[in-house]
Amino acid sequence: MPKSKPPRRRKIRRGNDLRLLMIEGTRAALALNDALLEKIEDALSRTPQGQERTRLLALRAEAKSHRPGLLESRADAMTPWFFES
Q1: What are the domain boundaries of the chain?
Q2: CB of 30 closer than 8 Å to CB of 67
Q3: Is pLDDT larger for residue 84 or for residue 47?
């Protein structure tokens, strides 16, 4: 049986570049979400009871539920092979 050819270096490099972009995108999404939650928490600390506070609490719950924690763990799992120690 003939041996199969190894993948070309260019394909490997392109795959690693895509993984890096996914990791960077996930980190940026997490940073944005954390900044948004921080702003909401700040506004909540200054807002008295009422409709505005209720809206802020709903917004905070929505932001927390959309936190890309799953993406974060997936990005960590997809660390490019050349970063592994």
Answers
A1: 10-76
A2: yes
A3: 47
